[in-house]
Specification:
By secondary structure, the chain is mainly alpha-helical. It is built from eight helices and four strands. It has one domain. Helices cover 52% and strands 8% of the residues. The chain is globular, with a radius of gyration of 21 Å.
Length: 244
């Protein structure tokens, strides 16, 4: 009878939090093991933000998590204080409603980004404070990326199935092409993860994350070089004159 009660309690907790015991243990063990290095990295990033622009080091934003629940997500601030959001909203809407690759807005010299902010975003170092969200049980190390409420409002019912998994810092989508995939491909990968999640799958995704980040940084660098070359070519184009 006692065993049955414990099983029911565990099932209820899983239903409420979306975090099975093995997942919670994995998160705590890895964060504890990597704590010295993570704290050093966080200190360096905080210094970069502090020197890059005036304003708070941390950025707080409302995000959508497990089963559509709202929570406050933490990040290192990589944009100037009071930066406009209309351009991101338009960019996100265009990605959701089209079949174009999920490239970030800041890939193309976003003026809202502080010095070295694009580098922090490309490497994912701006997301280190989300480890606080992991410790609070609002996120996990592995899971779909949380979205912003105005993005969630544009989701179709089938797309919201991705929220059957607790959001994470990395995930199946991130190690499966990310910026080369479309919005619907991202959704399908996140749904696949929510249906297949296991200790083994989480470990595989974690091991693939660093190589995926390196590829992403290289791809971003190539895109920026192409953009710079295109801009330079446009400026050097001779002006056609007409003799009267």
């Amino acid at each position: 009878m006692i065993t049955q009660d414990i099983t029911v309690d565990n099932a209820t907790e899983l239903q409420e939090t979306g975090l099975p015991t093995w997942k919670r243990l994995l998160d705590f063990v890895l964060i504890l093991a990597l704590a010295p290095g993570l704290l050093l990295l966080a200190g360096i990033v905080a210094l970069v933000v502090l020197c890059g622009s005036r304003g708070p080091i941390l950025f707080r934003q409302l995000r959508i998590g497990y089963r559509g629940r709202e929570y406050t997500c933490f990040k290192f601030r990589t944009m100037h204080v009071d930066a406009e959001t209309d351009s991101h909203r338009a960019h996100a809407t265009q990605l959701i409603k089209s079949e174009t690759p999920m490239t970030k807005l800041d890939t193309c010299r976003d003026p809202r980004v502080i010095p070295f902010g694009a580098c922090l975003r490309a490497t994912g170092l701006d997301e280190l404070p989300q480890l606080l969200n992991v410790l609070r049980g609002e996120m996990s190390l592995v899971g779909p990326r949380p979205c912003i409420p105005y993005e969630y409002a544009l989701y179709e019912p089938w797309q919201r199935r991705r929220f059957e998994a607790v959001p994470g810092l990395t995930g199946l989508w991130q190690v499966s092409g990310k910026n080369r995939t479309t919005f619907n491909q991202m959704i399908r990968l996140d749904i696949e993860y929510s249906e297949r999640k296991s200790l083994w799958l989480d470990m595989v995704i974690i091991l693939k994350t660093l190589p995926a980040l390196l590829r992403q940084c290289l791809e971003t660098r190539v895109l920026k070089r192409k953009e710079a070359a295109s801009s330079a070519a446009g400026m050097e184009k001779p002006v056609q004159t007409y003799q009267l």
